[in-house]
Inverse folding.
Protein backbone atom coordinates (compact mmCIF):
# COMPACT_ATOMS: atom_id res chain seq x y z
CA UNK A 1 0.00 0.00 0.00
CA UNK A 2 1.68 3.18 -1.14
CA UNK A 3 1.93 5.99 1.34
CA UNK A 4 2.08 9.30 -0.45
CA UNK A 5 1.53 12.93 0.37
CA UNK A 6 1.58 16.32 -1.25
CA UNK A 7 4.75 18.38 -1.05
CA UNK A 8 2.77 21.42 0.15
CA UNK A 9 0.39 22.38 2.96
CA UNK A 10 -1.59 24.80 0.79
CA UNK A 11 -2.77 24.79 -2.80
CA UNK A 12 -1.93 28.32 -3.86
CA UNK A 13 -0.98 27.74 -7.46
CA UNK A 14 0.24 25.12 -9.89
CA UNK A 15 3.59 26.93 -9.82
CA UNK A 16 4.24 25.70 -6.27
CA UNK A 17 3.49 22.01 -6.82
CA UNK A 18 5.41 19.36 -8.72
CA UNK A 19 4.46 16.65 -11.19
CA UNK A 20 4.14 14.02 -8.44
CA UNK A 21 1.65 16.21 -6.59
CA UNK A 22 -0.40 16.70 -9.74
CA UNK A 23 -0.39 13.00 -10.51
CA UNK A 24 -1.34 12.12 -6.93
CA UNK A 25 -4.27 14.54 -7.13
CA UNK A 26 -5.45 13.14 -10.47
CA UNK A 27 -5.17 9.55 -9.23
CA UNK A 28 -7.09 10.34 -6.08
CA UNK A 29 -9.70 12.14 -8.18
CA UNK A 30 -10.26 8.87 -10.09
CA UNK A 31 -11.32 7.29 -6.80
CA UNK A 32 -13.61 10.18 -5.96
CA UNK A 33 -15.16 10.13 -9.42
CA UNK A 34 -16.15 6.57 -8.61
CA UNK A 35 -17.60 7.74 -5.28
CA UNK A 36 -19.80 10.45 -6.83
CA UNK A 37 -21.26 7.98 -9.31
CA UNK A 38 -22.50 5.61 -6.61
CA UNK A 39 -26.05 5.42 -5.24
CA UNK A 40 -24.76 7.10 -2.05
CA UNK A 41 -22.36 9.79 -3.19
CA UNK A 42 -20.78 10.54 0.13
CA UNK A 43 -17.82 9.32 2.20
CA UNK A 44 -17.11 10.17 5.85
CA UNK A 45 -13.40 11.01 5.37
CA UNK A 46 -13.50 14.69 6.43
CA UNK A 47 -16.22 14.39 9.06
CA UNK A 48 -14.24 16.23 11.76
CA UNK A 49 -13.08 19.08 9.52
CA UNK A 50 -14.58 22.51 9.02
CA UNK A 51 -14.00 24.41 5.79
CA UNK A 52 -14.72 28.09 5.15
CA UNK A 53 -15.50 29.16 1.59
CA UNK A 54 -14.55 32.81 1.36
CA UNK A 55 -15.49 34.44 -1.94
CA UNK A 56 -14.50 38.06 -2.48
CA UNK A 57 -15.49 37.75 -6.11
CA UNK A 58 -18.53 36.31 -7.89
CA UNK A 59 -18.57 32.65 -8.74
CA UNK A 60 -21.18 30.03 -9.58
CA UNK A 61 -19.39 26.90 -10.74
CA UNK A 62 -16.31 27.02 -8.53
CA UNK A 63 -18.27 27.88 -5.39
CA UNK A 64 -20.92 25.22 -5.93
CA UNK A 65 -18.29 22.71 -6.94
CA UNK A 66 -16.18 23.30 -3.81
CA UNK A 67 -19.25 23.23 -1.61
CA UNK A 68 -20.48 19.98 -3.10
CA UNK A 69 -16.99 18.46 -2.84
CA UNK A 70 -16.86 19.43 0.85
CA UNK A 71 -20.30 18.00 1.54
CA UNK A 72 -19.54 14.74 -0.27
CA UNK A 73 -16.49 14.39 1.99
CA UNK A 74 -18.74 15.02 5.03
CA UNK A 75 -16.90 18.22 6.05
CA UNK A 76 -18.77 21.01 7.83
CA UNK A 77 -18.86 24.13 5.70
CA UNK A 78 -19.46 27.83 6.21
CA UNK A 79 -19.90 30.25 3.34
CA UNK A 80 -18.94 33.84 3.17
CA UNK A 81 -19.51 36.32 0.38
CA UNK A 82 -17.69 39.64 0.63
CA UNK A 83 -20.61 41.67 -0.66
CA UNK A 84 -22.80 40.79 2.34
CA UNK A 85 -20.11 40.98 5.03
CA UNK A 86 -18.14 43.33 7.27
CA UNK A 87 -15.52 43.69 4.52
CA UNK A 88 -17.76 46.43 3.20
CA UNK A 89 -17.41 48.08 6.63
CA UNK A 90 -13.62 48.28 6.23
CA UNK A 91 -12.31 45.10 7.88
CA UNK A 92 -8.92 43.91 6.56
CA UNK A 93 -8.40 40.52 4.92
CA UNK A 94 -6.26 39.15 7.78
CA UNK A 95 -8.80 40.30 10.39
CA UNK A 96 -11.68 38.82 8.45
CA UNK A 97 -9.98 35.48 8.06
CA UNK A 98 -8.65 35.36 11.64
CA UNK A 99 -12.17 36.00 12.91
CA UNK A 100 -13.42 33.12 10.84
CA UNK A 101 -10.56 30.93 12.07
CA UNK A 102 -11.41 31.79 15.68
CA UNK A 103 -14.53 29.75 15.08
CA UNK A 104 -12.22 26.70 14.69
CA UNK A 105 -11.99 26.40 10.94
CA UNK A 106 -9.33 24.04 9.53
CA UNK A 107 -9.24 24.93 5.88
CA UNK A 108 -10.00 28.07 3.89
CA UNK A 109 -11.06 28.07 0.25
CA UNK A 110 -10.64 31.61 -1.03
CA UNK A 111 -11.36 33.53 -4.22
CA UNK A 112 -10.06 37.07 -4.33
CA UNK A 113 -9.83 39.77 -7.03
CA UNK A 114 -6.15 40.47 -6.22
CA UNK A 115 -3.28 38.31 -7.42
CA UNK A 116 -1.32 36.76 -4.55
CA UNK A 117 -4.08 37.10 -1.95
CA UNK A 118 -3.84 33.39 -1.12
CA UNK A 119 -0.07 33.54 -0.79
CA UNK A 120 -0.33 36.55 1.51
CA UNK A 121 -2.93 34.87 3.69
CA UNK A 122 -0.98 31.62 3.95
CA UNK A 123 1.91 33.57 5.51
CA UNK A 124 -0.24 35.37 8.06
CA UNK A 125 -2.89 32.99 9.29
CA UNK A 126 -2.76 29.53 10.75
CA UNK A 127 -4.93 27.55 8.35
CA UNK A 128 -4.50 25.66 5.14
CA UNK A 129 -5.44 27.75 2.12
CA UNK A 130 -6.88 26.58 -1.17
CA UNK A 131 -6.78 29.19 -3.90
CA UNK A 132 -10.08 29.24 -5.81
CA UNK A 133 -8.84 31.99 -8.12
CA UNK A 134 -6.79 35.10 -7.29
CA UNK A 135 -7.21 37.96 -9.75
CA UNK A 136 -5.52 37.26 -13.07
CA UNK A 137 -2.90 35.08 -11.36
CA UNK A 138 -3.82 31.42 -10.79
CA UNK A 139 -6.82 29.10 -10.61
CA UNK A 140 -5.16 25.80 -9.72
CA UNK A 141 -8.23 23.57 -9.28
CA UNK A 142 -9.51 24.59 -12.72
CA UNK A 143 -6.19 23.58 -14.29
CA UNK A 144 -6.25 20.28 -12.42
CA UNK A 145 -9.78 19.48 -13.52
CA UNK A 146 -8.92 20.43 -17.11
CA UNK A 147 -5.92 18.09 -16.98
CA UNK A 148 -8.11 15.37 -15.45
CA UNK A 149 -10.69 15.82 -18.23
CA UNK A 150 -8.05 15.67 -20.98
CA UNK A 151 -6.49 12.60 -19.43
CA UNK A 152 -9.88 10.93 -19.15
CA UNK A 153 -10.62 11.63 -22.84
CA UNK A 154 -7.18 10.98 -24.37
CA UNK A 155 -5.72 8.50 -21.89
CA UNK A 156 -2.54 10.47 -21.30
CA UNK A 157 -1.35 14.06 -21.34
CA UNK A 158 2.32 13.49 -22.14
CA UNK A 159 3.04 14.66 -25.69
CA UNK A 160 -0.45 16.02 -26.35
CA UNK A 161 -0.93 19.42 -27.96
CA UNK A 162 -3.22 21.89 -26.27
CA UNK A 163 -4.14 25.34 -27.55
CA UNK A 164 -5.59 27.95 -25.21
CA UNK A 165 -7.62 30.48 -27.18
CA UNK A 166 -8.84 33.92 -26.12
CA UNK A 167 -8.16 36.41 -23.38
CA UNK A 168 -4.81 35.09 -22.13
CA UNK A 169 -3.89 38.48 -20.67
CA UNK A 170 -6.65 38.53 -18.04
CA UNK A 171 -7.00 34.81 -17.52
CA UNK A 172 -5.93 32.97 -14.38
CA UNK A 173 -7.16 29.78 -16.02
CA UNK A 174 -4.62 30.24 -18.84
CA UNK A 175 -1.58 30.56 -16.57
CA UNK A 176 -2.54 27.65 -14.33
CA UNK A 177 -3.34 25.53 -17.37
CA UNK A 178 -0.04 26.32 -19.08
CA UNK A 179 1.97 25.39 -15.96
CA UNK A 180 -0.06 22.27 -15.22
CA UNK A 181 -0.05 20.89 -18.76
CA UNK A 182 3.67 21.57 -19.17
CA UNK A 183 4.45 19.81 -15.89
CA UNK A 184 2.55 16.80 -17.23
CA UNK A 185 4.53 16.85 -20.49
CA UNK A 186 2.08 18.46 -22.91
CA UNK A 187 2.89 21.08 -25.54
CA UNK A 188 0.97 24.30 -25.10
CA UNK A 189 0.11 27.07 -27.56
CA UNK A 190 -1.76 30.28 -26.89
CA UNK A 191 -3.90 31.94 -29.54
CA UNK A 192 -5.69 35.28 -29.60
CA UNK A 193 -5.49 38.87 -30.77
CA UNK A 194 -2.09 40.51 -30.13
CA UNK A 195 -3.63 42.81 -27.55
CA UNK A 196 -4.81 39.90 -25.40
CA UNK A 197 -1.55 37.90 -25.46
CA UNK A 198 0.88 39.05 -22.75
CA UNK A 199 4.29 40.21 -23.99
CA UNK A 200 7.12 37.70 -23.45
CA UNK A 201 4.72 34.81 -22.84
CA UNK A 202 7.11 32.72 -24.99
CA UNK A 203 9.44 32.73 -21.98
CA UNK A 204 7.04 30.26 -20.35
CA UNK A 205 7.86 27.87 -23.19
CA UNK A 206 4.56 28.22 -25.03
CA UNK A 207 4.01 28.75 -28.74
CA UNK A 208 2.12 31.85 -29.85
CA UNK A 209 -0.24 31.89 -32.83
CA UNK A 210 -2.61 34.60 -33.97
CA UNK A 211 -4.45 32.57 -36.58
CA UNK A 212 -7.20 30.42 -35.07
CA UNK A 213 -7.39 27.93 -37.97
CA UNK A 214 -3.64 27.25 -37.88
CA UNK A 215 -3.78 26.79 -34.12
CA UNK A 216 -6.70 24.37 -34.34
CA UNK A 217 -4.99 22.33 -37.05
CA UNK A 218 -1.97 21.96 -34.77
CA UNK A 219 -3.73 20.89 -31.58
CA UNK A 220 -5.43 17.82 -30.05
CA UNK A 221 -7.38 19.90 -27.55
CA UNK A 222 -8.70 23.47 -27.78
CA UNK A 223 -9.50 25.27 -24.54
CA UNK A 224 -11.67 28.27 -25.41
CA UNK A 225 -11.48 30.98 -22.76
CA UNK A 226 -14.09 33.60 -22.00
CA UNK A 227 -13.42 37.24 -22.82
CA UNK A 228 -13.11 38.75 -19.35
CA UNK A 229 -14.88 42.04 -19.98
CA UNK A 230 -15.00 42.77 -16.24
CA UNK A 231 -11.21 42.89 -16.06
CA UNK A 232 -10.68 44.89 -19.25
CA UNK A 233 -10.11 48.51 -18.38
CA UNK A 234 -9.64 49.59 -21.98
CA UNK A 235 -10.85 48.31 -25.37
CA UNK A 236 -8.61 45.45 -26.47
CA UNK A 237 -10.53 44.71 -29.68
CA UNK A 238 -13.02 46.74 -31.75
CA UNK A 239 -16.16 44.76 -30.98
CA UNK A 240 -17.36 41.40 -29.64
CA UNK A 241 -18.72 40.73 -33.11
CA UNK A 242 -15.33 41.17 -34.68
CA UNK A 243 -13.71 39.00 -31.99
CA UNK A 244 -16.29 36.28 -32.69
CA UNK A 245 -15.48 36.44 -36.41
CA UNK A 246 -11.73 36.14 -35.88
CA UNK A 247 -11.45 33.92 -32.80
CA UNK A 248 -14.89 32.40 -32.31
CA UNK A 249 -15.14 28.64 -32.83
CA UNK A 250 -18.11 27.53 -34.91
CA UNK A 251 -19.26 24.18 -36.25
CA UNK A 252 -18.07 24.94 -39.76
CA UNK A 253 -14.48 25.52 -38.64
CA UNK A 254 -14.61 22.40 -36.48
CA UNK A 255 -15.96 20.22 -39.31
CA UNK A 256 -13.39 21.52 -41.81
CA UNK A 257 -10.41 20.45 -39.68
CA UNK A 258 -8.71 17.30 -40.90
CA UNK A 259 -8.92 15.72 -37.44
CA UNK A 260 -11.31 15.53 -34.52
CA UNK A 261 -10.22 17.78 -31.68
CA UNK A 262 -11.61 18.09 -28.17
CA UNK A 263 -13.25 21.36 -27.24
CA UNK A 264 -13.11 22.65 -23.65
CA UNK A 265 -14.36 25.77 -21.92
CA UNK A 266 -13.92 26.68 -18.25
CA UNK A 267 -17.27 28.51 -18.18
CA UNK A 268 -19.23 30.69 -18.03
CA UNK A 269 -19.76 30.55 -21.80
CA UNK A 270 -20.64 33.63 -23.80
CA UNK A 271 -22.52 31.68 -26.47
CA UNK A 272 -21.87 33.15 -29.89
CA UNK A 273 -18.67 34.93 -28.80
CA UNK A 274 -15.86 32.45 -28.07
CA UNK A 275 -17.86 29.42 -29.18
CA UNK A 276 -21.22 28.99 -30.86
CA UNK A 277 -24.05 27.00 -29.32
CA UNK A 278 -23.76 24.09 -31.76
CA UNK A 279 -20.08 23.66 -30.83
CA UNK A 280 -20.75 23.95 -27.09
CA UNK A 281 -23.42 21.25 -27.36
CA UNK A 282 -21.53 19.05 -29.84
CA UNK A 283 -20.05 15.58 -29.30
CA UNK A 284 -16.54 16.99 -29.30
CA UNK A 285 -17.26 19.36 -26.43
CA UNK A 286 -16.46 18.09 -22.92
CA UNK A 287 -17.66 21.20 -21.11
CA UNK A 288 -20.14 19.39 -18.87
CA UNK A 289 -17.67 16.59 -18.15
CA UNK A 290 -15.29 19.32 -16.94
CA UNK A 291 -17.95 20.45 -14.46
CA UNK A 292 -18.56 16.89 -13.23
CA UNK A 293 -14.82 16.22 -12.93
CA UNK A 294 -14.44 19.50 -11.03
CA UNK A 295 -16.19 18.01 -8.00
CA UNK A 296 -14.02 14.88 -8.01
CA UNK A 297 -10.79 16.87 -8.42
CA UNK A 298 -11.71 19.30 -5.63
CA UNK A 299 -12.59 16.36 -3.37
CA UNK A 300 -9.11 14.98 -4.06
CA UNK A 301 -7.42 18.31 -3.31
CA UNK A 302 -9.31 18.81 -0.03
CA UNK A 303 -8.79 15.20 1.04
CA UNK A 304 -5.06 15.24 0.34
CA UNK A 305 -4.52 18.60 2.05
CA UNK A 306 -6.61 17.65 5.08
CA UNK A 307 -4.72 14.38 5.47
CA UNK A 308 -1.49 16.18 6.29
CA UNK A 309 -2.58 18.25 9.25
CA UNK A 310 -0.95 17.02 12.42
CA UNK B 1 13.52 -10.46 13.11
CA UNK B 2 11.97 -13.91 13.59
CA UNK B 3 9.62 -15.55 11.15
CA UNK B 4 7.29 -18.44 11.90
CA UNK B 5 5.27 -20.11 9.16
CA UNK B 6 1.61 -20.43 10.08
CA UNK B 7 0.28 -21.91 6.88
CA UNK B 8 1.80 -23.09 3.60
CA UNK B 9 1.90 -25.91 1.04
CA UNK B 10 -0.85 -28.47 1.12
CA UNK B 11 -2.30 -27.20 4.38
CA UNK B 12 -2.86 -23.79 2.74
CA UNK B 13 -4.76 -25.41 -0.17
CA UNK B 14 -6.85 -27.59 2.17
CA UNK B 15 -7.77 -24.55 4.24
CA UNK B 16 -9.04 -22.64 1.18
CA UNK B 17 -11.01 -25.72 0.01
CA UNK B 18 -12.51 -26.19 3.47
CA UNK B 19 -13.63 -22.55 3.61
CA UNK B 20 -15.24 -22.89 0.18
CA UNK B 21 -17.18 -25.99 1.24
CA UNK B 22 -18.36 -24.15 4.35
CA UNK B 23 -19.60 -21.32 2.11
CA UNK B 24 -21.44 -23.79 -0.15
CA UNK B 25 -23.06 -25.37 2.90
CA UNK B 26 -24.70 -22.02 3.73
CA UNK B 27 -25.12 -20.46 0.30
CA UNK B 28 -25.95 -23.43 -1.98
CA UNK B 29 -25.37 -22.42 -5.60
CA UNK B 30 -24.48 -18.75 -4.94
CA UNK B 31 -27.44 -17.49 -6.96
CA UNK B 32 -28.22 -14.94 -4.26
CA UNK B 33 -24.74 -14.48 -2.80
CA UNK B 34 -21.80 -12.31 -3.85
CA UNK B 35 -18.16 -12.16 -2.76
CA UNK B 36 -16.58 -8.82 -1.86
CA UNK B 37 -12.82 -8.66 -1.32
CA UNK B 38 -11.47 -5.79 0.77
CA UNK B 39 -8.79 -3.85 -1.12
CA UNK B 40 -5.99 -4.36 -1.58
CA UNK B 41 -5.03 -7.71 -0.09
CA UNK B 42 -8.45 -9.17 0.61
CA UNK B 43 -9.15 -9.07 -3.10
CA UNK B 44 -6.42 -11.67 -3.78
CA UNK B 45 -8.08 -14.01 -1.29
CA UNK B 46 -11.50 -13.31 -2.84
CA UNK B 47 -10.12 -14.11 -6.33
CA UNK B 48 -8.85 -17.44 -5.07
CA UNK B 49 -12.15 -18.27 -3.38
CA UNK B 50 -14.06 -17.34 -6.53
CA UNK B 51 -11.87 -19.67 -8.64
CA UNK B 52 -12.14 -22.51 -6.16
CA UNK B 53 -15.94 -22.17 -5.88
CA UNK B 54 -16.26 -22.06 -9.68
CA UNK B 55 -14.37 -25.36 -9.91
CA UNK B 56 -16.33 -27.07 -7.15
CA UNK B 57 -19.75 -25.88 -8.34
CA UNK B 58 -18.79 -26.08 -12.05
CA UNK B 59 -20.25 -22.68 -12.78
CA UNK B 60 -18.65 -19.43 -13.84
CA UNK B 61 -21.30 -17.00 -12.70
CA UNK B 62 -20.16 -16.43 -9.12
CA UNK B 63 -20.02 -12.67 -8.65
CA UNK B 64 -17.02 -11.05 -7.02
CA UNK B 65 -16.21 -7.40 -6.41
CA UNK B 66 -13.47 -5.36 -4.75
CA UNK B 67 -14.24 -2.79 -2.10
CA UNK B 68 -11.89 0.02 -1.11
CA UNK B 69 -12.25 1.40 2.41
CA UNK B 70 -9.71 4.25 2.35
CA UNK B 71 -12.23 7.09 2.63
CA UNK B 72 -14.10 5.29 5.43
CA UNK B 73 -11.13 4.67 7.74
CA UNK B 74 -11.34 5.96 11.29
CA UNK B 75 -7.64 6.89 11.57
CA UNK B 76 -7.64 9.71 8.97
CA UNK B 77 -5.49 12.60 10.32
CA UNK B 78 -4.64 10.45 13.33
CA UNK B 79 -1.54 8.78 11.99
CA UNK B 80 1.33 9.81 9.75
CA UNK B 81 1.22 9.34 6.06
CA UNK B 82 -1.64 8.82 3.76
CA UNK B 83 -2.78 5.48 2.49
CA UNK B 84 -3.45 5.73 -1.23
CA UNK B 85 -6.89 4.62 -2.33
CA UNK B 86 -7.57 1.61 -4.55
CA UNK B 87 -10.28 1.04 -7.11
CA UNK B 88 -13.78 -0.12 -6.25
CA UNK B 89 -15.03 -2.68 -8.73
CA UNK B 90 -18.54 -3.70 -7.82
CA UNK B 91 -20.38 -3.99 -11.13
CA UNK B 92 -23.49 -5.69 -9.77
CA UNK B 93 -26.34 -4.78 -7.44
CA UNK B 94 -25.84 -5.77 -3.79
CA UNK B 95 -29.32 -4.64 -2.69
CA UNK B 96 -31.08 -7.68 -1.18
CA UNK B 97 -28.09 -10.02 -1.76
CA UNK B 98 -26.08 -12.04 0.73
CA UNK B 99 -22.61 -10.55 0.87
CA UNK B 100 -19.49 -12.38 2.00
CA UNK B 101 -16.87 -9.80 3.00
CA UNK B 102 -13.44 -11.28 2.50
CA UNK B 103 -10.13 -10.16 3.99
CA UNK B 104 -6.81 -11.90 4.55
CA UNK B 105 -6.15 -10.99 8.19
CA UNK B 106 -8.57 -9.90 10.91
CA UNK B 107 -6.87 -8.03 13.74
CA UNK B 108 -8.52 -5.05 15.46
CA UNK B 109 -11.74 -5.19 13.44
CA UNK B 110 -11.48 -1.54 12.41
CA UNK B 111 -11.01 -2.37 8.73
CA UNK B 112 -14.17 -4.49 8.79
CA UNK B 113 -16.11 -1.69 10.49
CA UNK B 114 -15.00 0.66 7.68
CA UNK B 115 -15.84 -1.96 5.07
CA UNK B 116 -19.38 -2.34 6.39
CA UNK B 117 -19.88 1.43 6.09
CA UNK B 118 -18.33 1.50 2.61
CA UNK B 119 -20.52 -1.43 1.53
CA UNK B 120 -23.74 0.32 2.51
CA UNK B 121 -22.99 3.07 -0.04
CA UNK B 122 -23.82 0.46 -2.69
CA UNK B 123 -27.21 -0.55 -1.26
CA UNK B 124 -28.75 -2.59 1.54
CA UNK B 125 -27.62 -6.20 1.47
CA UNK B 126 -29.91 -8.88 2.94
CA UNK B 127 -27.11 -10.26 5.07
CA UNK B 128 -23.40 -9.66 5.47
CA UNK B 129 -20.95 -12.35 6.58
CA UNK B 130 -17.23 -12.18 7.17
CA UNK B 131 -14.58 -14.61 6.00
CA UNK B 132 -10.90 -14.28 6.91
CA UNK B 133 -7.89 -16.46 6.27
CA UNK B 134 -6.19 -15.57 9.55
CA UNK B 135 -7.96 -14.47 12.73
CA UNK B 136 -5.61 -12.81 15.23
CA UNK B 137 -7.90 -13.58 18.13
CA UNK B 138 -8.14 -11.70 21.45
CA UNK B 139 -6.94 -8.49 19.79
CA UNK B 140 -10.21 -6.88 18.75
CA UNK B 141 -10.97 -3.18 19.36
CA UNK B 142 -14.54 -3.57 18.18
CA UNK B 143 -17.20 -6.25 18.66
CA UNK B 144 -16.64 -7.95 15.29
CA UNK B 145 -16.23 -11.70 14.80
CA UNK B 146 -15.75 -13.67 11.57
CA UNK B 147 -18.20 -16.31 10.31
CA UNK B 148 -15.58 -18.32 8.40
CA UNK B 149 -12.00 -18.65 9.67
CA UNK B 150 -9.01 -20.23 7.92
CA UNK B 151 -6.86 -20.35 11.01
CA UNK B 152 -6.83 -18.65 14.39
CA UNK B 153 -3.56 -17.41 15.86
CA UNK B 154 -2.54 -15.91 19.15
CA UNK B 155 -0.21 -13.00 18.52
CA UNK B 156 1.26 -9.97 20.21
CA UNK B 157 0.48 -6.42 19.10
CA UNK B 158 4.12 -5.99 18.08
CA UNK B 159 3.94 -8.98 15.74
CA UNK B 160 2.85 -8.83 12.13
CA UNK B 161 1.02 -11.42 10.01
CA UNK B 162 1.91 -11.50 6.31
CA UNK B 163 -0.08 -13.47 3.74
CA UNK B 164 1.59 -14.12 0.37
CA UNK B 165 -0.24 -15.34 -2.72
CA UNK B 166 1.04 -17.45 -5.60
CA UNK B 167 -0.39 -14.97 -8.12
CA UNK B 168 1.38 -11.92 -6.73
CA UNK B 169 4.28 -13.11 -4.56
CA UNK B 170 4.95 -16.49 -6.17
CA UNK B 171 4.05 -18.60 -3.14
CA UNK B 172 1.01 -19.38 -0.99
CA UNK B 173 2.18 -18.79 2.56
CA UNK B 174 1.26 -17.14 5.85
CA UNK B 175 4.03 -16.07 8.21
CA UNK B 176 4.09 -14.48 11.64
CA UNK B 177 6.87 -11.92 11.93
CA UNK B 178 8.28 -10.87 15.32
CA UNK B 179 10.83 -8.19 16.00
CA UNK B 180 13.79 -9.96 17.67
CA UNK B 181 14.36 -9.17 21.34
CA UNK B 182 17.74 -7.61 21.95
Amino acid sequence: MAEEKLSTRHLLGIKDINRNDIELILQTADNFKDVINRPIKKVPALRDITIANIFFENSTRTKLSFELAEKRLSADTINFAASSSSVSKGETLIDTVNNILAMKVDLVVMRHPYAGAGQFLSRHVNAQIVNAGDGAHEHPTQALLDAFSIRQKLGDIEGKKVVIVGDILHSRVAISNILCLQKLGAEVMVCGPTTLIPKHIESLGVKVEHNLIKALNWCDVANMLRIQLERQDIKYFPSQREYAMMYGLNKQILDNLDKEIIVMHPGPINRGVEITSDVADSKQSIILEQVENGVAVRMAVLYLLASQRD
Amino acid sequence: MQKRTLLDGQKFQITIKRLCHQLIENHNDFSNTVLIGIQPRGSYFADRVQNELSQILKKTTIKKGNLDITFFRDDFRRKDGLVAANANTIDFIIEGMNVILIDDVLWTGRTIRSAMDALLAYGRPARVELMVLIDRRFSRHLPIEPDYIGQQVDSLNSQHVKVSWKETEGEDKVILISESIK
Summary: Chain A is about 40% helix and 15% strand. The CA atoms of residues 87 and 96 of chain A lie 7 Å apart. Chain A touches chain B at residues 1-5, 24, 27-28, 30-31, 34-35, 38-40, 42-46, 48-49, 73, 303-304, 306-309 (CB under 8 Å). Chain A has a mean pLDDT of 92.
